[in-house]
Design brief:
Structural class: alpha+beta
Order of helices and strands: HHHHEEHEHHEEEEE
Strand content: 15-25%
Radius of gyration: 16 Å
Largest sheet: 3 strands, antiparallel
Shape: globular
Helix content: 25-40%
Number of domains: 1
Number of helices: 7
Length: 211
C-alpha cells in the first residue's frame, strides 16, 4: 500500500510498487490512474477512462508511465500522486494517488494486451464530469478555476471537441486525431484503436462545444 506526503506525492518508488503488484510498469500505471480517477465507478466507466488515458499516451507518443507522471512544473517527475498538488501548485494529466484494485489491473491488462479490444470513446483522451466540475468550482476548491462551460470553451480553443458521454462523464477528442469509423489515427496516420459496439447505446454525441 502506498503513502502520500503532505503535498499529495506518493512516497514509494513506482517501479517497486509495480513489481509488488505482479504487473509491468505500463499496466500498473494505467490501472493506478483508473483507480484514482474512477475507483468507485462501474466497470463500463473504468474501461472508458482507461481507453482515454491509453489514447492520450498514443497521441503524445509517450509511455503510460510517462504520461501519468509528467507534471507541468517538474516535467517527468517519475512519481505517482494527486492530479493537483496544493502546496507547490503543480498538476498532471490524471491522478495516480490511489492503489489499484484487482478489477483496475484486469481492465488495464486487457486493454493493453488485446489490440482489438474495442474503444467505446472513439479516440477521445480528455474527460471530466461537468456536474462535479461545476460543484467544485462553486466551492472554490483548489485546482478548479473554471466551471464546465468555461472549461469546454477553453478546451475548444485548444482543438478539443466533445464526442461522447458515458454515464456522468464527458469525453473529448483532439482535432489532431482523425476518427475513421471503426478506427482512428493520429495526424501521422498510425492506427491506434478500434471502436466497440458494446455499450454504444449509452454514448451520446455532442454536436458542438458552444451550443
Amino acid at each position: 500500500m502506498s503513502t502520500l506526503d503532505n503535498d499529495g506525492w506518493v512516497i514509494e518508488d513506482p517501479h517497486r510498487l509495480a513489481i509488488i503488484s505482479g504487473y509491468d510498469i505500463e499496466t500498473y500505471s494505467l490501472a493506478r490512474a483508473v483507480a484514482s480517477e474512477a475507483g468507485s465507478e462501474p466497470s463500463e466507466i473504468k474501461r472508458a477512462i482507461a481507453f482515454a488515458i491509453r489514447n492520450e499516451a498514443t497521441r503524445r507518443g509517450m509511455t503510460l508511465f510517462s504520461v501519468t507522471t509528467l507534471t507541468r512544473q517538474r516535467g517527468p517527475s517519475y512519481r505517482y500522486g494527486r492530479q493537483y498538488h496544493p502546496s507547490s501548485g503543480d498538476s498532471r494529466y490524471v491522478s495516480t494517488a490511489q492503489d489499484p484494485g484487482h478489477e483496475d489491473l484486469e481492465i488495464a491488462s486487457k486493454i493493453l494486451s488485446e489490440p482489438g479490444f474495442g474503444d467505446p470513446i472513439m479516440g477521445s483522451s480528455r474527460f471530466f464530469q461537468p456536474e462535479v466540475q461545476d460543484r467544485l468550482f462553486a466551492q472554490g476548491k483548489p485546482g478548479y478555476r473554471k466551471d464546465s462551460t468555461m472549461l469546454l470553451e477553453s478546451w475548444g480553443s485548444e482543438g478539443w471537441q466533445a464526442v461522447v458521454s458515458v454515464g456522468s462523464w464527458m469525453f473529448l477528442r483532439h482535432e489532431s486525431v482523425e476518427w475513421r469509423g471503426a478506427t482512428y489515427a493520429n495526424a501521422g496516420g498510425a492506427v491506434a484503436g478500434w471502436l466497440s459496439l458494446i455499450g454504444a447505446a449509452s454514448l451520446i454525441a455532442y454536436a458542438s462545444l458552444r451550443g
